[in-house]
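pls design
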């Protein structure tokens, strides 16, 4: 027995010594053949600048360093991929028969640069040189995941450049791994994308045509969503499943802030609508809370269906306890988008404050919109919008800055308990805009306080991103008539100006408006409004609705020199709204 043990020890030492000796074998003489094979397969140059040898292991392992792979000839940088070190672990028995079976791949310090040209062609497309033979459909199934090697990537930098816009998005990943687990793989991705920490994990089973992702979990900036998904690649790619989470924050994915005073609201960057034609999907998303900045939607449900490039996404949620419905339908082939929004009895003052737009209002509102547009960017869609928006705001208070559009002197009289000099009592506000070709015409616009009723008319041009509205105040007290005057609000959406409009002044004295009945009610004026909501059914908007319907006459009188400067307050309010929209729509 002692002799046998001695034999085993000697044999082990010989094997270890042989394996160690192999690490000194220089495989550099094979570099030209490897580089030539890559050139034949892809039409591009593969360079191996570092040593190429066999690592010290019981399993044959090829190690090489300082690798680079050429970019497309139209690319904006010379290399598509560079890496500090690559390790390939090979199965021993296939090598004895002259075959190569890669079992594990380890990549360190990789830098991957993906980009498209102006026609949308990717640098990962190799043309005829890299064309693959057609798959054998008679095989009756996809390649098993058992044939996929384990993959470990450390310190990966990846960037994507859009050839049409020149915009570059990048991320860095500490770990990307694909490790064996119970007949499948456990996938882990951890890194930073657009400045936010991102991690993803899932158990993958099946084959290359039908695979399932169990216990999938995506965490972004500390908020998570997870569930089970299935991917079917047999015909048209289709993703099905259900995802849920207690809370998810989309703020890291959305651009914030405008481009400064007078900057654009709607981005001209291409939208990925054509991506809707690539695959089908049937996914149910449920979230306890969805956050964007300070805005929080709760009890969110989104059954998302994508078939043949057509997307249907009817979302239901609550904002501060009030119901919100948003139905989005998009056609990726036609580049068309339809939006149907309905929100009842929601706190509009809190919403404006949550969006960091304004704190001027304390009231609840109903809102409805049916809009449709087409194009390849937010700007193109906004420029072609058709449809209608309706808004009703109920009783509350409004900051005097909004009433400075009338007159400093008049504000002082209109505000009850004038010691504070800050708020006035709001009775009702209504708005209807009819859109055609991106231009919205105000067919109903009125605001009523306990002592003042103001009507308006004009247009909002989303294509040119300009506003042109004329407001005509009508004091309910005859003694205040001489203090009122028409004001025009005009200019860019993000920085309009307000001032006296002498052309808007017509002769005659406005009479007080009080409780005028409107045939058909608000429903005739604002058809998207539900008569069952508390704001519309409250009955406080009859006078405002009647005035908005007629919207005739104006006010003459003495105009104070300080009034025009005071009117600028309204422009400041709309400027805040325009910049808030810029943050939501990508600029």
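designed seq:
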């Amino acid at each position: 027995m002692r002799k046998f043990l001695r034999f085993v020890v000697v044999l082990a030492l010989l094997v270890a010594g042989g394996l160690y000796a192999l690490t000194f074998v220089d495989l550099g003489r094979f570099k030209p053949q490897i580089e030539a094979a890559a050139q034949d397969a892809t039409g591009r140059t593969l360079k191996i600048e570092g040593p190429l040898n066999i690592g010290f292991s019981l399993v044959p392992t090829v190690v090489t360093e300082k690798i680079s792979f050429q970019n497309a000839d139209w690319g904006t940088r010379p290399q598509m991929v560079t890496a500090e070190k690559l390790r390939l672990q090979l199965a021993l028995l296939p090598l004895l028969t002259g075959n190569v079976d890669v079992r594990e791949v380890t990549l360190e310090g990789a830098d991957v640069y993906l980009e498209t040209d102006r026609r949308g062609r990717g640098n990962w497309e190799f043309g005829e040189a890299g064309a693959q033979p057609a798959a054998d459909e008679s095989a009756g199934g996809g390649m098993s995941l058992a044939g996929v090697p384990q993959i470990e990537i450390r310190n990966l930098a990846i960037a994507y450049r859009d050839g049409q816009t020149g915009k570059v998005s990048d991320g860095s990943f500490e770990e990307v791994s694909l490790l064996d687990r119970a007949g499948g793989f456990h996938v882990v991705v951890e890194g930073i994308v657009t400045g936010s920490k991102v991690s993803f994990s899932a158990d993958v089973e099946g084959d290359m045509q039908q695979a399932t992702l169990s216990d999938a979990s995506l965490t972004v900036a500390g908020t998570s969503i997870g569930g089970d998904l299935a991917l079917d690649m047999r015909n048209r790619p289709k993703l099905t499943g259900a995802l849920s989470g207690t809370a998810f924050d989309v703020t890291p994915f959305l651009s914030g802030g405008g481009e400064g005073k007078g900057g654009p609201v709607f981005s001209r960057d291409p939208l990925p609508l054509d991506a809707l034609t690539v695959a089908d999907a049937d996914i149910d998303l449920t979230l306890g809370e969805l956050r964007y900045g300070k805005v929080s939607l709760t009890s969110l449900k989104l059954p998302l269906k994508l078939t043949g490039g057509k997307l249907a996404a009817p979302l239901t949620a609550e904002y501060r306890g009030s119901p919100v419905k948003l139905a989005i339908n998009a056609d990726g082939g036609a580049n068309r988008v339809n939006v149907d929004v309905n929100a009842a009895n929601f706190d509009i003052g809190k919403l404006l404050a949550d969006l960091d737009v304004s704190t001027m209002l304390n009231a609840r509102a109903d809102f409805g919109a049916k809009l449709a547009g087409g194009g390849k960017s937010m700007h193109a869609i906004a420029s072609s919008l058709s449809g209608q928006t309706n808004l009703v705001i109920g009783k509350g208070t409004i900051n005097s800055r909004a009433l400075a559009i009338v007159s400093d002197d008049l504000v002082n009289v209109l505000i009850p308990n004038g010691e504070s000099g800050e708020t006035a009592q709001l009775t009702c506000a209504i708005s209807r805009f009819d859109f055609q070709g991106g231009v919205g015409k105000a067919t109903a616009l009125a605001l009523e306080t306990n002592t003042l009723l103001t009507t308006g008319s004009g247009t909002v041009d989303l294509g040119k991103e300009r506003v042109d509205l004329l407001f005509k105040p009508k004091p309910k007290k005859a003694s205040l008539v001489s203090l009122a005057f028409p004001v025009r609000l005009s200019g860019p959406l993000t920085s309009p100006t307000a001032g006296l409009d002498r052309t808007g002044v017509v002769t005659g004295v406005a009479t007080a408006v009080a409780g005028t009945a409107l045939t058909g009610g608000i429903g005739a004026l604002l058809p998207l409004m539900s008569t069952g909501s508390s704001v519309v059914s409250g009955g406080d908007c009859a006078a405002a609705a009647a005035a908005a319907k007629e919207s005739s006459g104006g006010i003459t009188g003495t105009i104070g020199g300080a009034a025009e400067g005071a009117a600028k307050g309204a422009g400041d309010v709309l400027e805040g709204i325009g910049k808030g929209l810029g943050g939501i729509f990508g600029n």
